[in-house]
Amino acid sequence: MRSFSYERASDARAAAKSASVQDASFIAGGTNLLDLMKLEIVVPAHLVDLGRLDPGGVAPTPDGGLRIGAGVSNSILAADPTVRARYPLLSQALLAGASPQLRNKATTAGNLLQRTRCGYFYDTAAPCNKRQPGTGCSALQGFNRMNAVVGGSTDCIAVHPSDMAVAMMALDATIETVAPNGDTRRIPIAGFYRLPEHTPHLETVLQPGELITAVTLPPPPPGLQGYRKIRDRASYAFALISVASIVDGAGGHIRHARFACGGLAPRPWRVPAAEAALANVSADAETIDHAADLLLQGAAGHGHNDFKIPMTRRLLAHVVSTAVAGSDQELIHG
User: Fold this and answer.
1) Are 257 and 275 in contact (CB under 8 A)?
2) What is the pTM of this model?
3) Alpha helices in 197-264, H assignment, sequence order
4) Closest-CA residue to 114 (of 238, 261, 270, 258)
5) Is the dihedral of CA 164, 165, 170, 171 positive or negative?
6) Residues 162-194: tens digit of each pLDDT
7) Ramachandran angles phi, psi of 277, nearest 5°
8) pLDDT grade, residue 125 (50/70/90)?
9) What element of type H or E holds 121?
10) Which of 64, 118, 263, 304 is the most exposed place for a label (fewest CB within 10 A)?
11) Hey, what CATH topology would domain 224-333 get?
12) 128 φ, ψ (degrees, to nearest 5)
């Protein structure tokens, strides 16, 4: 690990100002950043420690939604009574990610900003445009079992690893930030993550020094909520494919459906046209298959990850049909 300067921030605005210098980075739980620093994949010259800031808590909003402090741990958020009762897919997604020890340290903001687990990103001997722009993408012709089949580019096919972010995408979260000059803004999560195109090292719309302070959720829409994750082993593994869903329907009829996918793309993948195809329709195989066509429009495997395309179709069909039948114990009324 290379040497760096270090300071503890006293409040959010001071932290943002301190992190506005070149090559500065925030550290909170450090569950991802410390690994990256040890491998010298990320080499910040200055660390701004957020550990003494108020984590922010979990509190209802006047419109019936929820506001989650940026420093709230994944364990506390997953166990929060309001989250479990009204946003169960978020609790399920959090519990599907990492180990209990990591969830105790990982924070809400840090989880949103997790770096990809693409093996070539972590292999400093291999070209990787996300780690070192302009060097190439080893995954395109390499072992790409975990990589993206939609949303990627000729420069990068890494996927976003966060389970929580997929749930937040389905729930229409908004991300609150403060900038080094004290300005605040609210960013809908649908516009928070960038696609790689030719700049895969730029993953979000955050500006240098801009600090996430909270995440807000609107009131949950009616319907059965659920988070389904397919992975290589039963615990502590990243998603091959995951689906966060909210399906309002019964008796073979769908009134409304929302879903976001993980493990599929460089960001949590949500396609409004696919959801529109499942509004006020019968939940038959042809209708669900059409929605899957729209969700996967432009999808292309790269050899080892070809299986993700049919797997996504089957998982979406399972989630929607079981929600409408009301027979899946893992799908809970929100």
Assistant:
1) yes
2) 0.95
3) none
4) 238
5) positive
6) 999 999 999 999 999 999 999 999 999 999 999
7) -70, -15
8) very high
9) helix 119-122
10) 64
11) Enolase-like; domain 1 (3.30.390)
12) -160, 115
Please give the radius of gyration of the chain, using alpha carbons only, rounded to the nearest integer.
20
What residues does each domain of the chain span?
A: 5-51, 224-333
User: Side by side, which strands form the sheet with 174-178?
Assistant: 58-60, 66-69, 211-217, 174-178, 184-188
Rounded-to-integer distance, Cα 278 and Cα 299, Å: 20
Residue with tokens 């998982």: 315
Two structure tokens written together for 33: 């950043």
Neighbouring-strand partners of residue 254? 249, 281
For tokens 């998603």, what's the residue? 239
Q: What is the pLDDT of residues 290-322, one digit of tens each?
A: 999 999 999 999 999 999 999 999 999 999 998
Secondary structure letter of residue 193 according to DSSP = B
Q: Tokens 């195989």 label which residue?
A: 285
Q: Does domain 5-51 match CATH 3.30.43.10?
A: yes
